[in-house]
């Protein structure tokens, strides 16, 4: 299939996984980035890239469409030289932007030499920043926020590269985390509300930044701490670490990371994702009393919640659904005969385990509701006599402005509907959602951005988005 | 990387997933084969292929290296015409034979026109059959058993294509299941001991054969019955079904299908694979009493056994390991820093769940033991204070002659070692295996081929293989 | 674009370039085959392949769709081991058979071990041979004559591999040349009329067979002699050469090789192709007297004839057309604006050279006539005042049954038309063809197969083809 | 082969073919660009690209490594919408820069919206311009002059896009031609000395700019005139044409276009390339009297000169060498046996035509001399008794600073050597060069840049390059 690229000015937002390594001495650093990205693969499957800095003189990089394991093979990795400093990226693409031009890291030559930048998040004021630079005579070769950011960070640099990151961060409006490599200096930046995650680790003196702790774990690194809201951490070429704050940060991280996005074995801002999910399940059981025989979770993200539910309710935790592990990225239209229930491609029911049983089914969230309906049908066909749906998060009633790919407000099933109306649409015997307070408690009681559930975004976005 | 093909005469054995559809009327049959193969993907990830018969006049086919979702896309599937009869194949390749020449279905023109054949298994007497045909002036263009079989089935046909299948099957020694499409006739054959699985399903008058019932499920077909040991089932072009026996069959299917190979939601010869595994876990708990805090399984195949163990022992079933879902087919050598424990690429430990706990860890089997050792190290690093290993099958002490890819006898960790010696090598606090009788009971008490565990193969293979 | 392969029984004929090397000692033989094939590329651009024999124990091969330079790169060639014996092939495909399954060399395992065969030509009785082998229980995995031949040569072998070639050759009806590698023995065979070319060369004791002498030249080998009609030349593993005749040969080679197919610098059966073409041009000038200012040839194949014409007529030889050297294999439909004269994609007129001139234009032959018409239009637009067309061969009025890809009789412009009618269609001011006797004289006066011009094929084909 | 990209700041210069179309109404414009680029393919085989403007709202583009016929197929072209305005590019890459990031057209979003630019030439002051923009906070994502130019043209725009082209052109030092598409406006710019060619054509009201007239010819367009040195031609969206001069131009075009670069059927600044070459050959014959039997040219570029020589000298014009038409872009190391004369891969000698003859061989130029030596050896081996070399241009003694890819001064064979010394190195019986005045006369007597021959560049470059 030909992909004729189209250059439009519409901003395209990225959800992604980012990684940066500042090692003490030259090593096979591309291999480490590879395995770190591999552990972040769940954050983005569209493109992958690695850039490393060889002293001050050059940046070597490679990026392409596909999974980490598709983009890189042993031969490609071997071509990368030994080096001390590198960044990597895996990208999740919103519709219409699947193009290698948009792959990251963004690599460029600027005021302070050769630079590579890996960005995750969404800039609400990207167009304003772009307009400012356009007025100053800049050009843009892609339509992604990451190019705007790369250009802006360079544009704002006066004294040195670090000043660029700090000055730019002050002007950025949105949710973001990025790592920024200038020569052998590595700079890590997290937005003022800590909406996007960014964690720092250490392995034998090597400093590592990653979107999630599971990448540190994969590299046998220990967690040092989360980068703080509003913080700029600089690791210089001698590996001295310094910290700056571009704003007085206020922690309100994205709660959807705990609900769905993050990997269960990660720890975010000190809170275990697995434990958050398990606690959410426990709270569902405490809140809602349903007569049933067994409890099951939709794999993979709702299994921990199902276990929590089982612990409190006493209902046996059961495998009700099996997920096909070989789902590719190509969507194939099923034949007419199969179209009745296309979810079968991805999920099969364990008829043996659920036949004749009243089932409590836990899912992490409902966005459009179409999959929920198909899963319930599948379970009934496999013999479940009742299906009681429990959602380990509240109703999603608002779109996310910070880079989580939810549908427009109109497509959200919970938009303007009651729980009962939703129950009827998806065909469950009963339906319960976890209240937002309970979810927060499950996630450690801290302050979170819960905008998609209750409109309480980390900060006031009314100036940037039309009301919808 | 260039792949210069090498033609050698050494027999190459195939483990695979096979599928055949004999539909009542012309339909998007390639799509159905696609989704059926998709559900069989766990049986082979090396190559995939689809062949369909358009009346008597032609066979259209496509096969290539890769996963089903990589080999086929919407465009490729769309080129296939509507048709009534088709076969498909996914291939698992033993070392050194990863070559598109060996991909299946084998498609050829023979005595009774155009034919396509999908084969799973291993022919012990392939060389003898080949020699017989070489003497008769035949040629062979690949080194796989499937070409020998295709040629032999044609060679043995006297009256019609069906006679070829029956006559050939009488002479085949080994474990095999194959579907064989001649014009619009579909023939399904299973070896005399039923070592390889083959099941028949039905959907609105369409007859479907598959290696496992999960493929029938994916196609919304109902199980009719397993093809019997020694049986040849013929579905003619009017979809009349007839059955022949080339030998008085004696059921001794491969027990390793239940232990590892098959998908948990499949039913084989009437026995649920999930239930076999759960029962094996229960039996472990009944047999061995270990002081511990929690029980966990190695994902994915040992989770059902871990649940069974939990039910009987009362130990809480816990998630101790998470599997990376994006493992590609390219193996990348980790960097020096990561080489200490390469299992981290595939598995992460849930430190939160196991810290300070005494853990019972269930695995389905141990072949070489290297992975077990790494997993135990990983769990201890994550904080487990004790790791008690329980294996839901007996010690593997013999190679498989029927197509399961085990190492040579020398490489099997259980070869010539006691349980205690193995325990020390893998570093467990204790180690227990399930006795072969208990495993058989867990699998429904039927007769099974348990050769890899106790040398009791389905039949006497001493004439075919040197003693080792 | 997906290429779903279709297995049909219709015979597909090959025009091709073949090459075989029997070296004295092990060397980088794959490189030599590469450059030999490169010099034969004009004989077939569809697929290319190399197979070499490493002692008796194995055959290594690689073949794929594309030009020699596309199929092989340095890396692929480097994987081939040093060896003494190799064969190669470039393929021209008739419509509908562009499929890697049909690429050559054909490599197989047969009665006398591992074999590779490169074939050029067309077997009129392929179906009969196939039927005989089908009755004997053989199977066929492609639809090309080369597989039939490979199978038949093996089938006919009784004493040894050489006997197979001799016995088979006796039964083959058609035009053919092939090289056949069994272990380190190399066998070269040419049909009883020598219709297809095959020449033997020598370089420091290495024996080389090729379709044309230009391949010998490229390898710095000297011409030894042409393989004779009906001859089988055997080079054994000690490089002893022996010769056999499967029939009393009678030389009637294809005259179209001189007209169009062969490269100008080749010598075929002792006759220089360039000289044949030049003489054809001279004879045109002797026969037809046209008032004109300049003479030009259609590049590349008619340039030699145009020079000959210039020598005799005294008209200045002029460059009137330039050929685009970067024509790819993809055909692109021109835009509406360009459709008026699509020949412009391939040819440009030198307006500077022809403006206001009366032009004699020489072409090698006219098959359908559509290109001739476009060229004449192009020249007139560029300013030629008169275009007198001279064809350096007779009218093509019959299809070729021996593998030259001409249109069906109905599509031949000369079928049922007079010279005057053709002149009007193509829009020339005058039109002259070279009589068949003159063409033969130009080609050295020897006996040739001139079937496409006068129906006088090398032998009686009436039993094999319906009259059309 | 992996291509890990490396971002360095070294300027990379481009020789290229450029094309722009401003059509009256929407049409299949991508097809026209395709065929126009196809005719310019000889100017660059590394990458190809097409960009079109769809109203003001978007630019669609596609570019990739490879020949025009490799980069685009029918499917890719079909995806491009009908449009009125488009630009295209084929790229010749100097060593080390073969990377898709460097492919053109450069497409970006700037002050005046979406823009695409196709550039040919070399900017001597690229680094200075880049430094100026770096100071202003710009970033650069590649290392090619085209990105610098694109950025600078945008940077210099104050009133409108046209002002950017004019203001920028005033500051550019070097040889350049570019077409620049802003919305539906098309702007064509040629350097102040007209070093790089750029011609304007017309077809039914559509305005076309191209590097050479042969592209106009291919599109059935008529030559309007050459763009003048220092001229900016603007075709607005209503297809009104206006002309601006950013400097008082002074015509000194590159004479090497006539010697080698351009296609023989092109007309440059009113002079026929074919005729220039023919006249150069005639002048050689007038100047140097050599006793010989025949004259031949090295194909393809020296054939016209050989004809001119033949006309004056009376020696018969003969085909002495044939060029292999299937040369790919992959270089394969020949085997040991072939290494003696690797030119055989590309050229074969017509032994038949030259045996026993004293030969005058015309070549267009000698740069390093290694090929000349091999060709002379080849001709002698084929039987030529004497080889008298005549070069249709002067000795190349200086590198080109304007984008023609010549070796460094040290590698030029004529650097510091006499004609006699060169003759001995290449092994000719005699050697003669055409004096620079004669060459200029052959090219119409106009002023040319002849810097590579005599150091007389179009303008004083001493401030930009160190003396070497």
The helix-and-strand class of chain A reads alpha+beta
Identify low-pLDDT runs of chain A: 8-13
The termini of chain A sit apart by 36 Å
Number of helices of chain A: 15
The name of the CATH architecture of the largest domain in chain A is 4-Layer Sandwich
* Helical content of chain A (DSSP H or I, runs of 4+): 25-40%
CATH superfamily of the largest domain in chain A: Aminohydrolase, N-terminal nucleophile (Ntn) domain
Count of domains of chain A = 2
What is the CATH top level name of the largest domain in chain A? Alpha Beta
CATH fold descriptor of the largest domain in chain A? Glutamine Phosphoribosylpyrophosphate, subunit 1, domain 1
Radius of gyration of chain A: 23 Å
Biggest interface, and residues per chain? A-B, 68 and 69 residues
Strand order, sheet with most strands of chain A: 4-3-5-2-11-10-12
Average predicted local confidence, pLDDT of chain A: 90
């Amino acid at each position: 299939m030909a992909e004729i690229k189209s250059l439009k000015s519409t901003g395209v937002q990225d959800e992604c996984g980012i990684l940066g390594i500042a090692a003490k001495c030259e090593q096979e650093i591309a291999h480490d980035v590879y395995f770190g990205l591999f552990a972040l693969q769940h954050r983005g499957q569209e493109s992958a890239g690695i850039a490393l800095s060889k002293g001050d003189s050059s940046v070597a990089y490679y990026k392409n469409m596909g999974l980490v394991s598709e983009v890189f093979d042993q031969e490609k990795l071997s071509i990368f030289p030994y080096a001390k400093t590198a960044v990597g990226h895996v990208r999740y693409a919103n519709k219409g932007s699947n193009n290698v031009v948009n792959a990251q890291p963004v690599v460029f030559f600027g005021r302070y030499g050769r630079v590579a930048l890996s960005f995750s998040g969404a800039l609400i004021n990207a167009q304003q920043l772009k307009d400012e630079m356009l007025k100053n005579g800049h050009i843009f070769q892609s339509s992604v926020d990451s190019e705007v950011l790369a250009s802006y960070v360079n544009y704002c640099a006066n004294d040195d590269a670090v000043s660029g990151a700090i000055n730019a961060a002050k002007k950025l409006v949105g949710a973001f985390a990025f790592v920024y490599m200038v020569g052998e200096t590595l700079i890590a930046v997290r937005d003022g509300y800590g909406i996007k995650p960014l964690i720092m680790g250490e392995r034998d003196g090597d400093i590592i930044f990653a979107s999630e702790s599971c990448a540190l774990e994969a590299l046998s690194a220990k967690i040092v701490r989360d980068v703080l809201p509003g913080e700029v951490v600089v690791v210089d070429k001698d590996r001295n670490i310094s910290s700056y704050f571009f704003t007085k940060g206020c922690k309100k991280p994205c709660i959807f990371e705990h609900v769905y996005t993050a990997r269960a074995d990660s720890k975010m801002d000190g809170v275990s994702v697995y434990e958050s999910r398990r606690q959410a399940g426990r709270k569902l059981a405490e809140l809602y009393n349903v007569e049933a025989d067994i409890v099951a979770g939709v794999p993979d993200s709702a299994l921990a919640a199902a276990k929590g539910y089982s612990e409190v309710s006493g209902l046996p935790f059961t495998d009700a659904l099996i997920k096909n592990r070989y789902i590719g990225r190509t969507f194939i239209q099923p034949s007419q005969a199969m179209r009745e229930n296309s979810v079968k491609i991805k999920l099969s029911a364990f008829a043996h385990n659920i036949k004749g049983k009243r089932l409590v089914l836990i899912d992490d969230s409902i966005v459009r509701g179409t999959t929920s309906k198909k899963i319930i049908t599948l379970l009934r066909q496999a013999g479940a006599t009742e299906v009681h749906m429990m959602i380990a998060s509240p109703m999603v009633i608002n779109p996310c402005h910070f880079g989580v790919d939810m549908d427009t407000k109109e497509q959200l099933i919970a938009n303007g509907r009651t729980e009962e109306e939703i129950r009827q649409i998806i065909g469950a015997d009963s339906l319960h959602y976890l209240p937002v307070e309970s979810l927060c408690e499950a996630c450690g009681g801290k302050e979170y951005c819960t905008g998609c559930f209750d409109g309480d975004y980390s900060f006031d976005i009314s100036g940037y988005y039309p009301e919808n």
